[in-house]
From TrEMBL:
Protein's UniProt name: SBSPO protein
Top-level taxon in the UniProt lineage: Eukaryota
Spondin-like TSP1 domain mapped to chain residues: 4-51
Organism expressing this protein natively: Pachyramphus minor
Signal keyword on record: yes
Pfam families: SBSPON_C, TSP1_spondin
Gene name, Swiss-Prot/TrEMBL: Sbspon_2
Segments crossing the lipid bilayer: none
Amino acid sequence: VIPCVVSQWSSWSGCAEPCKTTYRVRTRHIIQEPRNGAEACPALEERAGCVEYWTRQGTECKQSLIPALITTGGFGKARKKRAAADGKERAGYCVEFQLVAITPGCLHSHHSYTHWMRYLREGHTVCVECQHPALDSRSQHCSGDGTGSRKNQLLHWQAVGNPRCKGTWRRIRQLDTCSCPSVHSFLFI
C-alpha cells in the first residue's frame, strides 16, 4: 500500500472579490498518488470568509456592512501585513459585547478555520477589535460596532466564513485597548 502524500498548505489568498463578504482560498497539491488500496487524498482546497474594503483600483468601498461581521482575532496579523502602511493609519479600538443569542450553526462547523466559533457562548463577554482596514477613515468607526445604539439595544452580528453562525449581542463599552482572553477576542471585518 502506497499512501497519498500532499504538500503543505499555501498561504491564504486575498479575497475573491472586493467590497463584498466573500472568501479567501488556500491550496495544496498531491506529491504522491495513493496506490494499491490506500486511502484517498484529503481535500486540496480550503476556503475561509473575508471582506476587502478597497477596490482593485485602490478606492475605498462605499457600502456599509450590517450586521457586524466578525472573525477570529488571529486574522489580524495576516491582515496587518497586507494593509498598505502609509503612515496615515489610525490606531484601532475594542468594543466589549455581551453575547445574548447564538445560532446552533456556530457549533456545527467542522473546518479548521471555523474552530474559533466554538468560543461564542451565550452570556459571555467578548472583545471585538476595530483595526485598519475595517476602521473607516471618515467615521472613525467599524461598521456594526454599535456606536450610537441605545443602552441594552440588541445588535446583530455574523461570523464570516459560516453564514449559519450569527446572533445578537449588547454593547457594553468601548476600550482603547483589548483585554479579553485570546479565545474571546475577535475582529470586525
